Amino acid sequence: MNLHEYQAKEIFSKFGITVKGGELVRSPEEAAAAAERMGGMVVVKAQVHSGGRGKAGGIKLAKTPKEARAAAAAILGLDIRGHEVKKVFVTPAADIDHEYYLGIVLDRAKGLPLIMVSREGGVDIETVAKERPDQLKKFHFHPSVGLRSYDARWLAGGIESDPAGRKSIAAILTKLAKCYVDCDASLTEINPLVRLKDGSFLALDAKMTLDDSGLFKHPDLAELRDMDEEDKDEDRARRDGLSFIRLEGNIGCIVNGAGLAMATMDLVKHFGGEPANFLDIGGSSNPDKVVTALDIITKDPSVKVILFNIFGGITRCDDVAKGLAKALEIKPVALPIVIRLTGTNEAEAREFLKKVSGVEAQGTMEDAVRRAVELTNAGGGAQR
Amino acid sequence: MSILIDKSTKVVVQGITGRDGSFHAKAMKAYGTHVVAGVTPGKGGQSLDGIPVFETVREAVEQTGANASGIFVPPGFAPDAVREAIDAGIKLVVVVTEGVPALEMCAVHEEVRAKGARVVGPNSPGLISPGKCKLGIMPAEIHRPGPVGVVSRSGTLTYEMVDQLTKSGLGQTTCLGIGGDPVIGTTFMDALMMFKDDPETKGVVLLGEIGGTAEEEAAVYIKEKLGKPVVAFIAGQTAPPGRRMGHAGAIISGGSGTAAEKIKALETAGIRVARLPSEIGPLMKKALRI
User: What is the DSSP letter of A382?
Assistant: First the structure.
């Protein structure tokens, strides 16, 4: 789960990291008022779950409250990589002497958190890593130990030679590592960390991503999920134990298992179709999941054909068939439905499906996908 | 031979009285696996389908000689369940549980390594050596004994591919699901090394997906060290970047970890990559010259 800059900053400050605070506002007027309260120059920053805000025009400097109003008016409503800006963060401008990069990610190859620091902040860390790898210092730490103080001092020494500055950066690194572990994060990043003209350090920007699997341990953090950024159907699917992601195409896919769901999407594309979604009904035998899945998919007006691909293991084919029948009873669907069922209780499911009208059964995954694409090209069904 | 499990494997099921644990303990037993014990705190002394239930793994090991564990407990309890198993001396632990916090598993894996044990998973369908032992949740009937080793990051996709192999007349030595999480105990590389040393495994099917670089690393090993033919399949060519595709590990980030990159790395290393599930069997047969 991604967090906004303002949320990440609140969390960082709870861990003792000095941040550049500010006010979250939703209109140009509020932005002007906030700038007025802050006095002097402010920075107006888009709060969306997307990188590259600066390049997309989502960050603007304003010298006066009037300029802050104009900046907010320009940024609000902006589309940044498919994310509409609905709120901005107004923060006092800082008197910057130098910008650094500090970040922690989970290195899956090593199975440990990787802390990275660079003397060059405020830019894409990927660019630094690629073009000037000597500018990047890396260190793996053990989550049950945390970042040891001497390792923090060693890392800090790689990006700052002044002893006082080095000490400050080391302290921030230790706090950032603690925050990462304590919150079950998968990314914490300060880019840039700035040294001000007075020699003090603060996090000018903040980024944080939480491990979805860790959220059950942190109900307070789970509450930070921003519904403005969430697709309503994706959210509903998640709450009902499904995994759903909307795509651009017109063949609605209902599959059990994430790998098979991805392979099904790929196969649709291979045969010349376009998947409308990724949808994994998961590994349980609950017919209600099929009801929810079908409801979500049929709400999408671009869907022309519905494709089921079920390989029953822990999921029983007859339960899926019953779920489908139940869903059609609650809400009839005018779209063609192609279904492929293999595995546990396949025979029972096939027998049961004979009684359900408008459902076409196929023997293999490839046959089912090919048929679904064929039906789509033939025009599919009329959406209600 | 087979890897990790065989006819002598004695399994303890942790979380045996739960919904999934009880179902699969029975299914494993029905397949012929020696499910010698179950563990559920608070339910010691009971039995399930003739399998004795213990309070702790230590007691289960002492009284039944269990030497492998299948973990079916909820995510919050899974890390400690692994610790309990390895502390009781078990050397192979399969974590079926999905949704375990990744950082907790980092810590657990470190302890597992220190004990010289092995974890498969988490978020793993487990493993099966057809005709010998099943320690997992896969539908057993699609598997046949034979010369192909299968290693995969996914559950149902593995079933699909195993079904394709069996239907084209190719049985399997061991099918291993390493799990869909970003931090897992047994990697592609570990599995490949074990398949290399298994004389019965003549060829390997590798089923990958988007996210991470495990397939790319495997490609290098296959080319330089494996000495056995490999056929691969990569799921997620149409996956949008930045989204978690069901599995916590299946996410394309920062433009790397794409299916296209993985396929390229595999093909550059001389590995045949199937574009369709139905190509898996024929490609493997060709590679094995059958």
Answer: P
Distance from CA of B31 to the nearest CA of A (A): 14
pLDDT at A64 over 80: yes
Report the pLDDT value the prediction gives residue A384, as an integer from 0 to 100: 37
Q: Is A101 a catalytic residue?
A: yes
3-state secondary structure of A128: helix
| Whether A142 contacts chain B with CB within 8 A | yes
Across the interface, which of B156, B214, B239 has its CB nearest the CB of A313? Answer: B156
CA of A255: how far to CAs of A34, A279, B53, in Å? Answer: 49, 6, 35
From A144, A213, A366, residue closest to B107, measured CB to CB: A144
Residue pair A57/A72 in contact (Cβ under 8 Å)? The answer is no
Segments in chain B forming alpha helices (H) = 19-31, 57-64, 78-87, 102-114, 156-167, 188-197, 214-221, 259-268, 280-288
Going by C-beta distance under 8 Å and a sequence separation of 6 or more, which residues neighbour residue B100? A213, B75, B78, B79, B122, B123, B181
Supply angle C-alpha B217, B218, B224, rounded to 5: 95
| CA–CA separation, A64 and B194 (whole Å) | 67
Q: Catalytic: which of A101, A120, A160, A180? A: A101
> Does A259 contact B152 at a Cβ distance shorter than 8 Å?
yes
The residues pairing with A306 across neighbouring beta strands, listed in sequence order, are A252, A337
Angle separating helix axes A65-75 and A28-38, nearest 10 degrees: 140
| Whole-structure pTM value | 0.92
Share of chain A above pLDDT 70, in %: 98
Closest by CA to A317, choosing from B159, B33, B233, B150, is B159
CA atoms within 13 A on the CB side of A191: 24
Chain A residues lying within 8 Å of B214, measured CB to CB: 108-109
Query: Is there a contact between A19 and A9 (Cβ–Cβ < 8 Å)?
Result: yes
Residue A190's nearest CA partner among A145, A137, A254, A125 is A125
Helix (H) / strand (E) containing A165: helix A163-182
List the Cα angle A181/B73/B114 in 5-degree steps.
55
Residue B126 CB-half CA count within 13 A: 29
Chain A's closest residue to B111, CA to CA, is: A144
Contact state of B240 with A245 under an 8 Å Cβ cutoff: yes
CB contact under 8 A, A260 and B160: yes
- Whether residue B238 and residue A275 make contact (CB cut-off 8 A), yes or no, is yes
Instruction: Name the one residue in this structure whose structure tokens are 């487990």.
Output: B126
Q: Going residue by residue through chain B (290 aa), what tens digit of pLDDT does each one get?
A: 799 999 999 999 999 999 889 999 999 999 999 999 999 999 999 999 999 999 999 999 999 999 999 999 999 999 999 999 999 999 999 999 999 999 999 999 999 999 999 999 999 999 999 999 999 999 999 999 999 999 999 989 999 999 999 999 999 999 999 999 999 999 999 999 999 999 999 999 999 999 989 999 999 999 999 999 999 999 999 888 878 888 877 887 766 789 999 999 999 999 999 999 999 999 999 999 98
Please name the member of B24, B156, B276 whose beta carbon is closest to the beta carbon of A270.
Answer: B276
| Whether B88 contacts B56, CB under 8 Å | yes
B28 φ/ψ angles, rounded to the nearest 5 degrees: -65, -45
Cβ separation A278–B239 shorter than 8 A: yes
Residue A200 has pLDDT above 50, yes or no: yes
Enumerate the residues of chain A whose CB falls inside 8 A of the CB of residue B208. none
Q: How many CB atoms lie within 10 A of CB B47?
A: 12
CA B179 remoteness from chain centre: 6
